[in-house]
From TrEMBL:
Phylogenetic placement of the source organism: Bacteria, Bacillati, Actinomycetota, Actinomycetes, Micromonosporales
Protein's recorded name: asparagine synthase (glutamine-hydrolyzing)
EC numbers for this chain: 6.3.5.4
Binding site for L-glutamine: 95
Annotated organism of origin: Micromonospora avicenniae
GO aspect biological process, one term: asparagine biosynthetic process
PROSITE patterns per the UniProt record, alphabetical: GATASE_TYPE_2
Matches recorded under PANTHER family: ASPARAGINE SYNTHETASE, ASPARAGINE SYNTHETASE (GLUTAMINE-HYDROLYZING)
């Protein structure tokens, strides 16, 4: 994976372009660039596939096309075989070369053949036309800004704000052409709400469980096809435990990493599973009082996130991926996405089936700027390629075909996932209720103390050139009684929190943060042995 940057047009400025690439430096290990009249293109490349030869920008054999590419296409070996039969002569073993070859043979329709997490730009060198594309869920980012005489394209907002021009996003599942005059015309090539449409609902629980297990195992399999050490972000919950178990079966060279406060249940569960599986385990211990304003500022700078809850989550993610990079791990898998797909949120079960489906689809459409953006920025901000097996389109399509009662049943959220891996995962994992990473240890509540500063910090980086920071959509939805239409309208009318809401949040967070201090003062002293006592059951 990489950070990519391009300036296309007669007024492309090498000085500004070099600054764009420098801003993207944390996303990779080496800078590779090409300077031509009217075309400046480069990458900050994280060397994962065909590390010695997949140099970018990649050009076609006839020099007509130039590719800047971020991500990985997991079916590149199958595509390579097909393209070889069509007569393409490959120069190396990278998926980068396969992406451009696919574009040469199939044009814009090539995106329908790619299974992966990607964003790329293909430029016709003679004309300056550029084809832009982003993966269906928006795992990998792509943005653009236009000024007279030049179009700028980059992997992150922070690389573009220096121009002072409005920044636009290539939406998930979109592709299209930017003409030589700089006009960008994009259209969707995949309709997320239509995934699974026309296919029968899977109403047999045994069949559903088998399909869920097979789909997740296959999604994980393609994401560990590497000779590098694979890290797994292990929260101690169901989803990340499932990922670690499957990675351990498929890729022996793996390591688990957990972040949490000393003595927290999350850390205890994670330690137990890693020990049971025989997987090396790194624990990043972070006490709530260790989180300071500087950490909030850095999380906002790295993540570029627009909603408060996502920023709070990023505060915890940043030190986790920083430690992975210190360990020399460049590829990691996470358990993100299961809650969205398999009913991990209460709102899905508080409304009727049709309203629940609309809420589900709305959340999926917005992942590229919420959950997935957090994962991309906080991982790539430290040169770690985070892969998200729950967000493979095949898994999303399957989730859309499952009835709501398979997602919440007998009082258990994500019931079908638990059934799918019954007999595979330990009972103490399967029985554990949902517990968002580190909430129980207070890390998120500590970060919440700084919410009144979020908007000002966000604007200080110029990120409002894309869109303003806004209140959490989930809080708007809850206030609107889970009425999606009303919540969308209300969110547009008042995108940010009011002073009164900030004050209320501050009082609540201060009260929560004061409680542990009181317990330490009046309660019995805990020993190290108490913190690390083994779980039972």
């Amino acid at each position: 994976m990489c950070g990519i940057a391009l300036s296309i047009g007669p007024d492309a400025d090498p000085t500004f372009f070099r600054r764009m690439l420098a801003v993207l430096a944390p996303r990779g290990e080496v800078t590779e660039a090409r300077y031509e009249s009217g075309l400046l293109a480069g990458t900050r490349r994280l060397r994962v596939v065909d590390r010695g030869r997949a140099v970018q920008p990649w050009t076609s054999a006839d020099e007509r096309w130039l590719l800047c590419y971020n991500g990985e296409v997991f079916n590149h070996w199958e595509l390579r075989t097909e393209l070889s039969r069509l007569g393409h002569d490959f120069r190396g073993d990278s998926d980068t070369e396969v992406v451009l070859a696919a574009f040469e043979y199939w044009g814009p329709e090539a995106v329908h053949r790619l299974r992966g997490e990607y964003a790329f730009a293909v430029v016709e060198r003679a004309t300056g036309r550029a084809f832009l594309a982003r993966d269906p869920l928006g795992v990998k980012p792509l943005y653009w800004a236009r000024e007279p005489g030049c179009l700028h394209v980059a992997s992150e907002v922070k690389a573009l704000v220096g121009y002072g021009m409005p920044v636009s996003e290539v939406p998930p599942g979109h592709h299209g052409w930017a003409d030589a005059d700089g006009h960008v015309r994009l259209r969707p090539y995949v309709d997320l709400p239509a995934l699974g449409a026309g296919l029968p609902v899977i109403d047999d629980p045994d069949e559903a469980a088998l399909l869920v297990r097979a789909a997740l195992r296959d999604s994980i399999r393609v994401r560990v096809d590497t000779d590098l050490t694979v890290g797994v972000v292990l929260s101690g919950g169901l989803d990340s435990s499932l990922v670690l178990h499957e990675v351990r079966e498929l890729h022996q060279d793996c390591v688990a990493i957990t972040i949490g406060a000393p003595g927290s249940p999350d850390v205890a569960y994670a330690r137990r599973l890693a020990a049971d599986l025989g997987v090396p385990h790194e624990v990043v211990e972070l006490r709530p009082r260790d989180i300071r304003l500087a950490d909030i500022r850095e999380a906002i700078r790295i993540s570029e996130l627009t909603e408060y809850g996502d920023i709070i989550n990023a505060v915890v993610s940043v030190p986790l991926f920083r430690r992975l990079r210190q360990l020399g791990v460049k590829v990691a898998l996470t358990g993100d996405g299961s809650d969205e797909l398999f009913g991990g949120y209460p709102m899905y079960h508080e409304v009727g089936a049709e309203a629940s489906r609309r809420l589900f689809l709305h959340r999926i459409r917005n992942l590229g700027r919420t959950e997935l953006q957090r994962v991309d920025r906080t991982s790539m901000g430290h040169g770690v390629e985070a892969r998200v097996p729950f967000f493979d389109p095949s898994v999303v399509e399957l989730a859309m075909r499952l009835p709501l009662e398979f997602k919440l049943r007998d009082g258990r959220e994500k019931w079908i996932v638990r059934r799918a891996f019954a007999g595979v995962l330990p009972e103490y994992v399967l029985r554990r209720p949902k517990n968002p990473m580190s909430y129980s240890s207070g890390l998120h509540e500590r970060a919440r103390l700084y919410k009144p500063f979020f908007a000002r910090l966000y604007r200080s980086f110029g990120y409002q050139l894309l869109e303003p920071v806004r209140r959490d959509f989930d809080s708007v939805l809850s206030r609107c009684g889970n009425d999606l239409d009303q919540a969308i309208a209300d969110g547009l009318a008042r995108p940010d929190y009011t002073v009164l809401e900030h004050a209320r949040d501050l009082v609540g967070a201060a009260r929560w943060n004061a409680a542990p201090m009181v317990r330490r003062l009046v309660g019995p002293r805990r020993t190290r042995g108490d913190d690390e006592a083994p779980l039972t059951g």
